[in-house]
Design goal:
The protein is of the alpha+beta class. 20% of the residues lie in helices and 41% in strands. β2 and β3 form a beta hairpin. The protein is globular and about 30 Å long. The termini are close together.
Protein backbone atom coordinates (compact mmCIF):
# COMPACT_ATOMS: atom_id res chain seq x y z
CA UNK A 1 0.00 0.00 0.00
CA UNK A 2 1.21 3.57 -0.56
CA UNK A 3 2.74 5.45 2.36
CA UNK A 4 -0.14 7.93 2.22
CA UNK A 5 -2.35 5.26 3.87
CA UNK A 6 0.04 4.56 6.75
CA UNK A 7 -1.01 4.94 10.37
CA UNK A 8 1.03 7.54 12.25
CA UNK A 9 3.39 6.12 14.84
CA UNK A 10 3.50 2.60 13.40
CA UNK A 11 6.74 1.45 11.71
CA UNK A 12 6.49 0.01 8.20
CA UNK A 13 8.96 -1.53 5.78
CA UNK A 14 9.53 0.01 2.34
CA UNK A 15 8.83 -2.69 -0.24
CA UNK A 16 8.83 -0.71 -3.51
CA UNK A 17 9.51 2.77 -4.84
CA UNK A 18 7.86 3.86 -8.08
CA UNK A 19 8.28 6.95 -10.23
CA UNK A 20 10.96 8.36 -12.49
CA UNK A 21 14.66 7.78 -12.02
CA UNK A 22 15.01 11.26 -10.54
CA UNK A 23 12.30 10.53 -7.98
CA UNK A 24 13.92 7.26 -6.93
CA UNK A 25 17.36 8.92 -6.72
CA UNK A 26 15.97 11.75 -4.57
CA UNK A 27 14.37 9.28 -2.15
CA UNK A 28 17.54 7.20 -2.09
CA UNK A 29 19.52 10.29 -1.04
CA UNK A 30 17.04 10.79 1.81
CA UNK A 31 17.74 7.21 2.92
CA UNK A 32 14.43 5.83 1.72
CA UNK A 33 15.31 2.57 -0.04
CA UNK A 34 13.72 -0.89 -0.22
CA UNK A 35 13.85 -2.79 3.12
CA UNK A 36 14.23 0.44 5.12
CA UNK A 37 11.97 1.04 8.11
CA UNK A 38 9.84 4.18 7.82
CA UNK A 39 7.43 5.71 10.34
CA UNK A 40 4.91 8.48 9.74
CA UNK A 41 5.32 11.02 12.54
CA UNK A 42 2.59 13.45 11.48
CA UNK A 43 0.24 14.15 8.57
CA UNK A 44 -1.13 17.54 7.52
CA UNK A 45 -3.38 17.80 4.44
CA UNK A 46 -1.84 14.63 3.00
CA UNK A 47 1.73 15.89 3.41
CA UNK A 48 3.82 13.75 5.73
CA UNK A 49 6.61 14.08 8.24
CA UNK A 50 8.36 10.73 8.34
CA UNK A 51 11.19 9.18 10.33
CA UNK A 52 13.76 7.47 8.09
CA UNK A 53 16.91 6.05 9.68
CA UNK A 54 16.58 8.36 12.68
CA UNK A 55 16.01 11.54 10.64
CA UNK A 56 12.73 13.38 10.25
CA UNK A 57 11.90 14.40 6.71
CA UNK A 58 8.90 16.27 5.30
CA UNK A 59 7.55 14.92 2.01
CA UNK A 60 4.58 15.90 -0.09
CA UNK A 61 1.62 13.61 -0.67
CA UNK A 62 2.55 13.09 -4.33
CA UNK A 63 6.02 11.85 -3.39
CA UNK A 64 4.63 9.78 -0.50
CA UNK A 65 2.29 8.00 -2.91
CA UNK A 66 5.35 6.63 -4.76
CA UNK A 67 6.62 4.84 -1.62
CA UNK A 68 4.94 1.47 -1.10
CA UNK A 69 5.03 -0.15 2.32
CA UNK A 70 4.08 -3.38 4.05
Amino acid sequence: MPLTFATAGKPFKVVKITGSGDTRLFLEKLGCVVDTEITVVNEVDGNLIVNIKGSRVAIGKELASKIHIA
